[in-house]
Amino acid sequence: xxxxxxxxxxxxxxxxxxxxxxxxxxxxxxxxxxxxxxxxxxxxxxxxxxxxxxxxxxxxxxxxxxxxxxxxxxxxxxxxxxxxxxxxxxxxxxxxxxxxxxxxxxxxxxxxxxxxxxxxxxxxxxxxxxxxxxxxxxxxxxxxxxxxxxxxxxxxxxxxxxx
Length: 163
Description:
Helix 3 packs parallel to helix 4. This protein is of the alpha/beta class. The radius of gyration is 16 Å and the shape is globular. The chain starts with a helix and ends with a strand. It contains 7 helices and 6 strands; from the N terminus they run ααβαβαβαβααββ. The strands form 2 sheets. The protein has a 4-stranded parallel sheet, sandwiched between helices. Strands 5-6 form a two-stranded antiparallel sheet. InterPro entries: Glyco_trans_2-like, Nucleotide-diphossugar_trans. Keywords: Glycosyltransferase, Transferase. One of its GO terms (molecular function) is glycosyltransferase activity. It comes from Acetobacter aceti.
């Protein structure tokens, strides 16, 4: 059964989903209930841009889905199929269900720490097509500090353009 079919069958899950948004934030997770719930709360606290958030759950068995639904988060997922499949759930959602101008894919262990982070990520994504999170320890060793949407770094550890 496709993701689209699952979302349509569960009308309740799509009732609150907008048809479009400026920034679509898709968080991937698997069995990290506390971590992903803390991330959702953090995003809600420091993100002022027009965004819609969805969590892509890869078949968690630790109560992740239930905890997120209690927080009012839209959760999509199914059986465990790995990180690439789970990221594709988010891409599909923001390409076909809720059309996003910019899509931010992030793992549950990324923790934004400043207001405006989503705008910076969206801008970097538009500039180069793809943005990855850079851990704080990597930025210290980069010859192009600080890494931002205007001062991109290319990381051998991550393999993609970073900001």
